[in-house]
Every structure is written in structure tokens, then in C-alpha cells.
Design brief:
2 copies of one chain form a homodimer.
Chain A (H helix, E strand, L loop, with lengths): L1 E5 L8 H14 L2 E6 L1 H10 L7 E5 L12 H4 L5 H10 L5 E4 L3 H13 L8 E3 L1 E2 L6 E4 L9 H17 L8 E4 L10 H11 L5 E5 L11 E3 L2 H26 L3 H19 L6 E5 L5 E4 L5 H16 L2 H15 L6
Parallel strand pairs in A: 1-2, 1-4, 2-3, 4-12, 7-10, 8-9, 8-10
Antiparallel strand pairs in A: 5-11, 6-7, 11-12
């Protein structure tokens, strides 16, 4: 299996990318194509004593600037490390693509270079968020600020396929994010989506109110991209805020107190650690594309590659494709 | 000053309501009209040794059922303790009204019994949320799931008036909740609202991303009622989740560790305590209406009465009214 990785995406590129990829070659048995400046990659690897065994370099000098408009990724083609990676994926030179670059550009590039699965209306960034009883996938987490009910129904299918095939959750519980438990709550979008989800054949458990998200009692949460992005960013923001507060409270606990609690603090940090997941899958694309967090370190890149591998192993895109084909059979308006 | 209080709203009625009101009479020098069953109120006060000095009872046997449709409050009129309180306020028998009953019914009743300020398009529940550097008011927190830009501009005016007159913040910083910092981010609602807010003459500081809300660096946050309700409920949910986690972590810290940290834990709990605020003002109504939290205890009811008193003292409704009148002068479409 070949995983293509953007060597120049994220705050810690290229060193942490190369480190994570070298570990992935060693521990996961995958081959890697790194996109970006070959001289810089080779120098960085040599300077840090990292072996490039199992890693091929696809050279390009440019890097997609995070301040550029997302659609520039389509126009500029293979010039940037991200654009080249997407093109290689589209051309069948690898099985999946990982990048920690601009989310907007990656969504645009995945949509127009790798292309959507036939019948799927929108590509959705789909992060995994930690909860008390288990993690859940949230989609759309930011790409499509205005959505129609049939898009939310498709998000539910894509999220279910992912949680089942990649995370190993049998018949994952799907919930619609809403401001009340009753099916009459919310905007027209929620009321109509509720009906579609009820008839979807998925394990739809109804509405979930935002206060219940941290409990982690469902596996798939669907909403429009504006609300999803608000939830994602507030979730992160509250997480950082409380982590800071816990540290502050504990700075007074003394050595003895810290000794008694250190195991629990570690367990809690582990539970909340975004790095263990890897990144957000961009679901709805013909081949797996993983958006790694901008601040990813080697561990996070390693896990993003592992996540990409699991998507390939679990044939997530095939499962979504089959669903979309069935849908197209029963509904001639299936494609947009 | 007379504050009307619904004696039968919330989970802890009537005992905690009566306790809180008795304290308010004693410490704030206000008079209270309690609405609800006079025999039940008198028995509860007698059984618990609470003085009813300064408290008058406006009798009605019924209580508005939280499961009824909100608009029933308008049809059923003065029959329920909430409906009677709203009618007394509308008739000038008191200066403000406090209830811990159904938010939906209170918004409907405030809008159609007490009525909106002329020129104000929507009544908005406006809770105060705790942040690291300071608290902020969030509106609309749930009443109007679909909003137009001019509504968000009015929310900003109402929130500013409240933070200045009740919370004593000079020239409060106003921000638009959005999924990016740039003014081109978000849906049409955010893009158009940004323009209106820029020209509003308020201290508008631009967009705020949800991850920055817990920092508490702005005083007024405006958004539509769907997004606002999601933010409010996720804020509460994350708060409970982390409070539980902090407790769990600390259960291992031992007596010595706890001793060292107990002051900090108390300070943090105090910072996050919703009871110190009282409740959510329903801004846009002709007279102050305060929605107390459903789980309010005596302290929370006391603070809700204090909050109502501050609204009267600061002439919050007058400030909003003056603004709306100026707006109507410059814009003939001012009223909806």
C-alpha cells in the first residue's frame, strides 16, 4: 500500500512529517510518497538521522500558501506539495493522501482533482471528537455552511461507514445535532433531516442536544457545516480552557497530591488527545484523503498515516460508493 | 420598587423561590409580588419559618406546564403563575418579572403580553456566560432559530445596553460569532451582519471564533438563535463534563493535595457558577423580564431578583427604546 503525504503541510513541516512517515514505514509496513522539495526533504532527513527507506519523493518546489484562496489549489495544479499529492492520488499513484495544509484548499482540491464519489453531493471534513464513553465523528465540520436535508442524510451514511470500517463500531448510533430532543425542534433543515434519517435504515437514535455531546454516547453526529464548525471550535476551545485550569489548580497540590493523581491526569490527557486519532477524513471523495491537524507532531502524522491505511483496508470509499449507487437506482435526482 | 416573581417556576419551587425572595426583601430593599397558590405559598413559608414581610401574594391555582406548547401562555392568560405575573407586569403593577418556568412560554408571553419595545424586531433570551477574563452576554440564545442581519444588529445594541447599565462595562466590546476571523467568512447572515455592525456606532471588534469564547475577551456576542442555543448548551455540557473530570482527578490527590488546592478549586467554581448571575434577561421587551435557570436555588433566585432590580435601576429598556426610536427616525422600515 502506498500513502502519499504532503511533506510541507502544517506548522512542523517537514521534520515532523518525515519522522512520522519513517515510523509508519517501519511499524505499519506501508510505502510512502512524500511531496515537496526533494533537496529540503533529503537534507532534513540527513540532518536528523532519519532513514528514507520505503519513502519515495515526488519533487515540487512550491508549497500552497495557507493565505491563498482555497480554489487556487485547483488552478495551480501540481505546482504545490498539496496539489501534486492530490494529482498523484487522482492518477492512481497511491492509495490515500495525508496533508496538514489548509483545510479549505484540501476540500477544494479533493473535490475537483480527486473528485467526489458519484451521487455524493458534498465532501465533508469529518473529525473524531473525544467523549466520555467513546469518540464520535462530526460531519460536516466546516466545508458546507449551507446544507440541504439530503446532504445531512448522506453525511450520516458516510459517518456510519467510517465508524464501522475504521473504528470498528458495529451498527454505530447516528444522531442529528439539534436544540431539543423532540422531532419538531430546530429549523426546517433539522425537521426535514429528521424524517430522512428515520427512513435511512441507519441506526438513527434521534436528536442530540449539544450538552450531551461530551458524554460520547453516540458515534455519528450530523449537522450543517456552519454549526459543525462552531461545535468543533468550541469543543477545542473549552478543552484548552479546562486543561489550563486543571494545570493551574494542580500547581498547588504539592508533590504528594500530584503523585496520587498523576495516573488519572495522564489517563484524562490520553482520552482528550487529538493526536491519537490522526486527523479528519474528508468523506465523500473517491479515495481516502486525511486532513491532519495544523499543529501535528510526528506522533500525529504517524497516526494520520495509520488512519489512511485503515480507510484503505476497510474500503470506506467503496462502502459509500455502493450506498450512493443504490440511492441513484431508487432516485434519479441522486446526483447534484 | 416591586419585583414580580413566579413562585411556581423551576425544579425547586416554591420553597427556594420564597427563600430567595425573602432574602431579596431584606438585603435589596425591594418589595415582591409572588404569583401562585396563596395557600401553598403561606404553608411553605410557615413550615420553613420564612417571613413574608414585604411580600404580597397574587393568587392563582394553576401553574404553566413545561410540556405545553409555548403559545398556550398567551391563550390561557392570567390562569397560570407565569401568565398572571406577565399580566401584572403589563398592567404596571410591578417593575420587572422573574420566572424559572419554560423559556419558550416566557418568550412568547413576554412578546405578546408585555410586548416588544417599538421598533425592536425580536425578543432574545440573553444569558451571561463565564469566561477567563470576564463574562459575556450571548444573544440570541435560542428564541429565533432563523434571523436576519438587522436582528443581529439590534441584538448587539440590546446586549451593549445591558452590559453597560447592569454589569458596569464601559463601551462593551461586541463581536459576531463566526467560523473565521475575516469579514468574508460565514454565511450570508454573518457577511451582511458584519457590515451592519461595522456601521452601528457600537464598539464592534469583528468576528469571534468559538474557540476564543472561553477567554472572555469580549462582552457581547451576537448570533442567530439556533447557533446561540448550540453554543449555550455545549458551553454548559462541557462545563459539567470537565467539572466531573476535575473531581475525579482530585479524588486521588489525598488530604494534603486537596488542602493545597482547595482555594483554587473554590475560586474556579465561583468563576463558573451560573447562580451568581441570576438568569437570562429577555431583551427587547418593554419591561425587564428575567428567566431564572430551571434548577435555581435560593441564591440563584436572590440574584435573579437583584439582576431585575439592576435592569430597572439602569433603565435598560429605556436605553434600548431610545435607540429603536432613533433607528425608526432614520429608517422607515424600522418596525417589523
Amino acid at each position: 500500500m502506498i500513502i502519499i503525504v504532503d511533506a510541507f503541510g502544517g506548522d512542523n513541516a517537514p521534520l515532523e512529517v518525515i519522522k512520522g512517515c519513517a515510523q509508519a514505514v517501519e511499524k505499519l509496513g506501508v510505502n510512502i510518497i512524500l511531496t515537496g522539495s526533494s533537496s529540503k526533504i533529503e537534507k532534513c532527513a540527513a540532518d536528523n538521522g532519519i532513514s528514507l527507506r520505503g519513502i519515495e519523493i515526488a519533487h515540487t518546489d512550491d508549497v500552497f500558501d495557507i493565505h491563498e484562496k482555497p480554489n487556487e489549489i485547483v488552478k495551480s495544479g501540481k505546482n504545490s506539495s498539496m496539489g501534486l499529492g492530490l494529482s498523484l492520488l487522482a492518477d492512481g499513484k497511491g492509495d490515500a493522501f495525508v496533508s496538514a495544509g489548509s483545510t479549505g484548499a484540501l476540500v477544494m482540491g479533493a473535490t475537483f482533482i480527486v473528485k467526489r464519489i458519484k451521487g455524493i453531493k458534498r465532501v465533508a471534513p469529518s473529525p473524531i471528537l473525544p467523549g466520555d464513553k467513546g469518540s464520535f465523528i462530526l460531519l460536516d465540520a466546516g466545508a458546507n455552511t449551507e446544507c440541504r436535508p439530503e446532504m445531512l442524510a448522506q453525511f450520516a451514511v458516510m459517518g456510519s461507514a467510517y465508524m464501522e470500517k475504521v473504528m470498528g463500531i458495529k451498527s454505530p448510533k447516528v444522531a442529528l445535532l439539534n436544540i431539543g430532543a423532540e422531532e419538531t425542534k430546530g429549523r426546517e433543515l433539522e425537521i426535514e433531516s429528521y424524517k430522512l434519517l428515520s427512513e435511512s435504515g441507519l441506526n438513527f437514535v434521534g436528536n442530540i442536544e449539544p450538552r450531551d455531546l461530551p458524554k460520547g454516547e453516540v458515534s455519528v453526529v450530523v449537522t450543517d457545516g456552519f454549526t459543525g464548525n462552531v461545535v468543533l471550535k468550541l469543543y477545542e476551545g473549552m478543552g484548552s480552557f479546562f486543561a489550563k485550569k486543571i494545570k493551574w489548580i494542580f500547581s498547588g497540590a504539592g508533590v504528594l497530591g500530584a503523585l496520587f493523581s498523576i495516573g488519572k491526569i495522564k489517563a484524562f490527557k490520553e482520552q482528550m488527545d487529538y493526536r491519537k486519532v490522526g486527523g479528519s477524513a474528508l468523506l465523500g471523495v473517491r479515495k481516502p484523503v486525511i486532513k491532519a491537524h495544523g499543529s501535528s507532531d510526528a506522533k500525529a502524522f504517524f497516526n494520520a498515516v495509520r488512519q489512511a491505511k485503515k480507510c484503505v483496508d476497510g474500503s470506506v470509499t467503496k462502502v459509500i460508493e455502493d450506498y450512493a449507487a443504490r440511492l441513484a437506482g431508487s432516485d434519479k435526482n441522486g446526483e447534484n
